[in-house]
Amino acid sequence: MNAPIPRDIPLPLPAGEGLLEFLLIVSFIVHIVFVHLMLGGSIFSLVCQIKGLKMPVFENVAYFIMRTITVNKSLAVVMGVAPLLLINTLYAPQFYASSALIGDAWMSVIPLVIAAFLIAYAHKFWWNHFVNISELHIGIALMETLLFLLIPLIFMTNVNLMLFPERWPDVKGFFSAMLLPNVIQRYLHFVTASVLFGALFLVWLTGRPNFAENMKHDALGIAEVRRFFYVFAFGAVIIQVLTGLIVLVSLPSNGMSWKIVLLLLLGGAPALPATWWMWRDLQEIDNRFANFNQVVMLFAGSIIIMGVARHEYRANALADHKAAIAQKTINYQAAALQARNDAEFTKNMRAADSEPPGSADFKQYCAACHHPELPTVGPALQEIKALYAGNPEGIVSWTKAPGKKRPDSMRMPGFPQLSQQQLQNIANYMLEAR
Ligand code: HEC
């Protein structure tokens, strides 16, 4: 692997790795469901607005959908905080690297999200002002949908780029990262999922009493609208399966394992019975959608398995890189420790060198009884200095054969173990010491 291996900051994780991974998977699934409802809702609001130009009833439906978008959007953003923080914690070096490599685009997410928020609210609150200026009205819906399409593309480009450290050296900004081999397929797979989940959500929503009220209990109109969404959901599943297969075969092999292939197939499998049930439902003339609940359950199961598979793939793809970073970090820590020890050692050596000769011996043999200023067992250094100023030989001869001078003092012991040189050094040191 010729990928850049950054050094990690050796800090412990705030909780067990398994727990954090579990929370990442769960919080991401919750987040992505609301993202799908938000993006799907906004696509359908736009579609219904355009359809409403000819069939006014759809104008009404568009507004009904619009009111859910701001809610789903807020939930998508709030629920997105947890997985974002968790991915930052679990994959800090990789996510940092990929975010930095597409830095401009990554930072632009903030103004883009703010713009999308404001446009979505303007669309909702000023609906009645703009409804008769259809170009502007549709223009706003289109802008909102495009923003909601662009933001996930930036996210996906980033989380995809982090999976391929060996590509980092070649990446020059957002567009080159977007053209990595599997971003577009993944993105199409994601957008069709939004259409699918958005359509299913709207089939459910338009089956509720307040929609009937909104439609003034026009049973035929309601059935027509619900069928419209159900047909979209049906078409989306088929495209979803196709794009899913393309994603599967184009996934770079470094993250692949049989377990992941199995998980992906298992996650895709519910699409078969779901398509069958949807097809059957669409054959019924009364539009009751008898199998709708089962269909929703199947897709709920599918998105959970896909969420797990997605995490597995990432963990697999980055296992080697993570290990290499851990190794590099350990090596670095060892080298840093070695360097600190070496520095400490040289410092001690220097300190030893820079001490005046005699100082160490004085501390070892004499300091116990000779304090710099106070008379203790023996006279203070001050007193000795005054007595022997300019006469270190005097100290040497005294120490070789200490006499008995002060009546109140004990007799000073002799130091036969010290050489003449040592004694001279001690004497000089005593006279010079401050
Ligand atoms: C166990 C305590 C003790 C130690 C250790 C000791 N001394 Fe003394 N030193 C004394 C005492 C007590 C006197 C005072 C003796 C007296 O006045 O009779 C003294 C006095 C001296 C004097 C003064 C002599 C004078 O003319 O008044 C010098 C100089 C001296 N010591 C040098 C040294 C040196 C050098 C060392 C270390 C190699 C040393 N001493 C270690 C106890 C000690």
Automatic annotation (TrEMBL):
- InterPro entries given in the database record: Cyt_c-like_dom, Cyt_c-like_dom_sf
Cited Gene3D superfamilies: Cytochrome c-like domain
Q: Which UniProt keywords apply?
A: Heme, Iron, Membrane, Metal-binding, Transmembrane, Transmembrane helix
All copies of domain Cytochrome c, residue ranges: 353-434
What PROSITE patterns does this protein's entry cite? CYTC (PS51007)
Membrane spanning stretches:
22-47, 75-93, 105-126, 138-164, 184-207, 228-251, 257-279, 291-309
Q: Name one GO molecular function term.
A: electron transfer activity
Coiled coil (UniProt feature):
none
Please identify the protein, giving its name as recorded.
Cytochrome c domain-containing protein
